[in-house]
């Protein structure tokens, strides 16, 4: 990690300008000025900007006036220095989703976990180095629901001499999907605030989008269509990111196949599909080989939701255009859509997910812990809170919706947990007694218990440095079984097993894949099922783990790991920066 200087000593804001990622593709491996070990300076000015979609104009928070936000590009081993100026009335912070932030939780970004948020009129510098990672990640706001508009891609190229472990593509194109709710005609902060007040589910979005554009399947949107221009007989790498708030998404391109080569900035054994599914928070690199003699000048790309929720959701389809030759904008409406699975097709999701395997090569080994120090079982799902006596609530049976891990619904602290840990001032801030097994065992995927009320608290699981952890995430059927995309900050993990029903601690572990399990930072707990993860706690700090459905995060579906320092100097947290925001 380089010293925190640069912008605070009057260096130029950036010799590496922002690049609008919805623009034409660039041959990224040939980008100039990106030698390994370089430092890249960026400035984020967070301002309100008028944006029009679906014939509705509204003022939304943006970075540098762009929606979606700017692309950041670096190589493995590079340092990024991002100075954020908050010019809006909301508090804000930024998370660099998937970056390990080794010993440097101060740059991780989740509000009240690793930092107090950046208040209006204030600034903060995120200074971090990308170590041992290459591929597609992304950045987004990590306060309330602001990430619906504040997000963008983070492209990490291999070291210059390394290249890719697959044939070099002709071009690379970042494509960001937005969720059911990614474009709301309403103010999203008002949407979630109303839901938290009434206890009911929030209103859903008005459209899904490709790179911020809803496309021709929606009224008053034909001109707001993303077009990907391609040449016949070429191979393109699409960098796919699901930036949705609350929806997993199916994706396909009519009459084309896709070869998956990377997931969450970790290479995988290539596999080819017609349809893929990607959860909020996940990133994926896929190779698209275009037809040598296309029968049509253009083909439709489409996204649609996957969900088993018992509540309402945005059951629409967004489309974009794969364009071999120019065509009138109006013609996009008549392009046949790819055949995507039904919204509740868990079988299709399972068949796709089973394909993921790490390369497990000499150059890219699968360093999964074989011996385990700590075994933990976390139930993940919904629950309820009682309705206050002075109001009427719109949740199940007159209660308020809640969500929890092991029946603990996370309570936002009054100050940042990382700062409290660094200062060893825990009183009144956190408790180190997060339950590591369900406090009341029941038939998790069967009939729910009579009592579904959750407990509330700011609790963490403390870990000694270098502890090897096996964590089983068990879905529940409380308020309906559905999948939950869980994201772990500060770490990657290996997905060693998964299945449906209740985890069997005797019969399921012998079936684990310990040879080439996929390495990820975000994984969906299967609907009415479980997933087993392993990781080595070698990164000291306080690290959030949460559902990447923002509605569930708002209801409390999160917890934190407190990883203590190791004995050696390079195993200890770095000191906090001088401009760390105050609460």
TrEMBL record:
Source species, domain of life: Eukaryota
InterPro entries attached to this UniProt entry: Cu-oxidase-like_N (IPR011707), Cu-oxidase_2nd (IPR001117), Cu-oxidase_C (IPR011706), Cu-oxidase_fam (IPR045087), Cu_oxidase_CS (IPR033138), Cu_oxidase_Cu_BS (IPR002355), Cupredoxin (IPR008972), CuRO_1_LCC (IPR034288)
Cofactor: Cu cation
Localization annotation: Secreted, Extracellular space, Apoplast
Gene Ontology cellular component terms for the protein in this record: apoplast
One GO BP: lignin catabolic process
NCBIfam families documented for this protein: laccase
Identification of the protein by name: Laccase
